[in-house]
Design goal:
Elements lengths: L22 H10 L4 E5 L6 H11 L4 E5 L7 H13 L7 H7 L7 H13 L5 E6 L7 H13 L4 E7 L7 H6 L3 E5 H4 L3 H11 L6 H11 L3 H11 L5 H7 L4 H15 L2 H10 L7 H8 L4 H10 L4 E3 L7 E3 L1 H14 L3 H16 L2 H10 L3 H17 L3 H10 L2 H4 L3 H14 L5 H14 L5 H21 L3 H14 L5 H18 L2 H18 L2 H17 L3 H13 L13 H13 L3 H18 L2 H17 L3 H17 L4 H17 L3 H11 L12 H17 L5 H19 L2 H13 L1
Parallel strand pairs: 1-4, 1-5, 2-3, 3-4
Antiparallel strand pairs: 6-7
Helix pairs in contact: 3-4, 5-6, 5-32, 9-10, 11-13, 13-17, 15-18, 18-19, 19-20, 20-21, 21-23, 23-24, 23-25, 24-25, 25-26, 25-27, 26-27, 27-28, 28-29, 29-30, 30-31, 31-32, 31-33, 32-33, 33-34, 33-35, 34-35, 35-37, 36-37, 37-38, 38-39
Length: 754
């Protein structure tokens, strides 16, 4: 489970007893709940959240609520919060998806959502999910993922969106299919009757029908404008004169009324508002630190009682926030009146959040204080935790927002910058970051020898992975071995990362024994550090090397060990159990236990899809396709390869995975008499019979031999059979040299068939 979520974001805001009832809108919402999507889109201050709170308080049935903020533009964080919201109405739903979200490998979200949607489909009850303030979600990836989620939702699930601006979605399509109903500003604005009830009953004014009509006309039913006008009219003798003079655009009216509201408050209240407006959320102890006072609890109670745009975030009235529009305008006033105080206030807030362990708010306020040196120190302090939680996107945003000259002077920041760029796939400039780290390291004379060794070890670790991506095998080995020499034994996470790169290099060279040793070292380090997910994956890599050496019983034992690390109490399987299951399915196929092979590979695909690790998903597809080929389920193979091809188009798969998928595709063509397709593949591959053999892509050469053999069967008088046998002889010699007994057996079988 993710433990750092703010549960206050999952509360339905409480309904005030003095609320203006809006039965016309409540009835419409009740009538339209059968639609897939209810979109409530209007500018700030039109009562969107209040309407939803009132409606949900009157109806029966499970409703999940999520209040969004700018931090939710990180895809993993957005879906973690959404699942947490769903768990408030359906206990335990999405546990597998949450496990994937906190895994060391950033998940493929769309694949993860497939499992979540299947779980929702199994719940018969009518359910609704409210996403409040969706306008803060500007990340296109998150929007695309929500569209996929919406398109795939079962009919008993309904999404309700509250937003200031229309989302970048295909709304016309939803309208054409009659899947959406909309409430907009024209629907939400107060009628004259509602405005009268609000002004005279809720705000306790005694306005004439004419005054109400004029004010309602001036504000065009804009609820926030009416509220601010009512606040500024309190205590005035010439209310009608004020109303008659009340005019202008919304922005002008808002600026004017905020000044009027602030001017009507006591100096103490006004100063409290200005000093605390920099806070996204606040509680009395935090406000005491920021304001330098001791009476914040009393102040907050007074603000709530006076309807001064204070929104409670929990039932205990401990956490609050200001109405966002009111907060923005207060900050404008603060910048005009006390511009020198803003950095000081943000600094105090940052220090309080740091003391309480709220990492992201600590750094956000440090940024707002423009104390970039402190931000740099904080990022260095928290970076390892962010990496362990797979929060690469957030860490990257922090580092990229710092001045370049500051980052380049701090070796740790340069390393983390390079690391996050590599994991996110935005690798341009990543090596330059490592060069900057080395220059910064050389310039810092005060560092101890131990610190220099650790920094150099990190640089070498990241360099090894860049080299592995570029298939620079000798450089991978050089850098990974250097990292393992330099890094302290207790740094299990980074040593494991270096060992993974080293194992990948040995694998690419065809040295199964050394690859097995490197992956085993990674598994040991991962277990010492408590990283069960990484240990399970590393053990699967160990098992794959054992398969290459025809040690199938030992490989089975290793895969079962990996599976055990992927299971919870009572044998429940986490999503990362999919990888060892897929490998066990392939072993069962080797022993002709096709029923078990079919079951394990299918389960492997499903769990790897929930996990969202694209390379593991591809390998699970390969395992399933291989079993389907043996079962002669050619339609199933085509379907599996279609799914894998879609994954390949959407992501950048590991070269090995692409090679294995090509192997399945070629075997399908040869099994279904589509030799022309196979010949086209051979021509496009650029492979030659006398070309250099590449351990990293050895299957391509074996498949070239298969194509030549098939072509020779069609044209016995041609040179193709002889070429196939020559190539197989070279491949057999290479496999014997590498100790890949399993491959030797396959090549010998092919030689016998040819």
């Amino acid at each position: 489970m993710i433990t750092s979520l703010l549960t206050t974001k999952l509360y339905i805001p409480p309904v005030r007893p003095e609320l203006v009832s809006r039965p016309r809108l409540i009835e419409r919402l009740n009538a339209e709940l059968h639609r897939k999507l209810i979109l409530i889109s209007a500018p700030a201050g039109f009562g969107k959240t209040t309407l939803l709170s009132d409606w949900l308080g009157q109806r029966e049935g499970p409703v999940a609520w999520l209040s969004l903020d700018e931090g939710d533009n990180d895809p993993a964080q957005f879906w973690a919060y959404l699942i947490a919201a769903l768990q408030t109405i359906h206990k335990g739903i999405g546990e597998a998806a949450l496990e994937a979200l906190v895994s060391p490998q950033p998940p493929h979200i769309e694949a993860l959502l497939t499992g979540l949607i299947n779980e929702i489909a199994g719940i018969p009850d009518l359910s609704a999910l409210v996403l409040d303030d969706f306008h803060v979600i500007t990340d296109q990836q998150v929007n695309d993922e929500v569209i996929f989620f919406l398109d795939s939702m079962p009919p008993q699930m309904h999404l309700i969106l509250s937003t200031r601006t229309d989302p970048p979605w295909p709304l016309a399509r939803f309208r054409a299919r009659r899947e959406m109903t909309e409430l907009r500003a024209d629907d939400l604005r107060f009628t004259a009757k509602e405005a009268a009830a609000f002004l005279n009953k809720v705000m306790s004014l005694d306005l004439s029908p004419d005054d109400v009509a004029v004010l309602e006309d001036r504000t065009e039913g804009w609820i926030a404008g009416l509220q601010m006008a009512a606040l500024s009219m309190r205590g005035r003798e010439d209310v009608s004169g004020f109303i008659r003079a009340f005019s202008g655009s919304h922005r002008f009216i808002l600026d004017y009324l905020v000044e009027e509201v602030l001017d009507q408050q006591s100096p103490a209240i006004r100063e409290f508002l200005l000093r605390t407006c920099i806070l996204g959320r606040m509680t009395a102890p935090l406000c005491d630190v920021v304001t330098g006072g001791t009476d914040s609890q009393t102040m907050l109670a007074q603000l709530e009682q006076a309807n001064l745009f204070l929104v409670p975030l929990d039932d205990e009235r401990r956490w609050y926030r200001y109405h966002r529009l009111f907060s923005e305008l207060l900050r404008n006033q603060l910048a005009l009146i006390h511009p020198d105080q803003m950095p000081v206030l943000h600094q105090r807030a940052s220090e309080w959040f740091e003391e309480k362990g709220f990492t992201e708010e600590t750094i956000a306020h440090a940024f707002a204080a423009r104390d970039y040196e402190r931000v740099a120190r904080l990022v260095e302090k928290y970076a390892q935790d962010m990496l362990h939680q797979s929060k690469y996107n957030i860490l990257s945003l922090w580092i990229e927002a710092l001045p370049d000259e500051l980052v380049q002077k701090r070796p740790w920041l340069c390393i983390y910058q390079s690391w996050t760029r590599h994991w996110s796939g935005m690798r341009e400039g990543g090596e330059d970051c490592l060069n900057n780290a080395e220059r910064a390291l050389a310039s810092l004379s005060f560092l101890s020898e131990k610190e220099r060794r650790i920094l150099s070890g990190y640089i070498a670790t990241v360099r090894a992975h860049y080299a592995l991506t570029g298939e620079e095998i000798p450089r991978v080995i050089e850098q990974a071995q250097k990292a393992l020499r330099l890094l302290p034994e207790e740094d299990y996470f980074t040593r494991g990362t270096a060992a993974i790169a080293l194992g990948g290099a040995y694998w690419g060279m065809g040295d199964a024994s050394s690859a097995e040793q490197a992956f085993a070292e990674c598994a040991v380090n991962a277990l010492k550090g408590g990283y069960r997910y990484r240990a399970s994956s590393a053990l699967c890599y160990v098992g794959m090397q054992q398969v290459k050496q025809a040690r199938l019983l030992k490989a089975k034992e290793t895969f079962h060990e990996a599976l055990a690390l992927s299971q919870g109490p009572g044998g429940s399987r986490f999503p990362n159990a999919g990888y060892p299951l897929a490998k066990l399915g392939e072993l069962a196929c080797e022993w002709n236990d096709l029923e078990r092979a079919w079951r394990d590979t299918n389960d492997g695909v499903e769990l790897c899809t929930q996990l969202g690790h694209v390379d593991l998903m591809a390998e699970a597809y390969v395992a399933l396709a291989r079993v389907q080929l043996v079962r002669r389920d050619f339609a199933g193979v085509k379907d599996t390869l279609r799914r894998a091809d879609r994954l390949s188009r959407e992501t950048k798969l590991d070269p090995w995975a692409l090679c294995w998928l090509d192997d399945c595709r070629l075997r399908l063509w040869l099994s279904t008499d589509k030799l022309d397709e196979a010949l086209r593949w051979a021509e496009m591959s650029g492979l030659r019979v006398d070309g250099e053999l590449d351990y990293h892509h050895d299957l391509h050469h074996i498949n070239l031999a298969r194509v030549l053999a098939a072509q020779g069967m069609r044209q016995p008088s041609g040179p193709h059979l002889s070429e196939a046998l020559d190539l197989l002889a070279r491949l057999l010699e290479a496999a014997e040299k590498a100790g890949w007994i399993h491959k030797e057996i396959k090549i010998l079988i092919l030689q016998a068939l040819v």
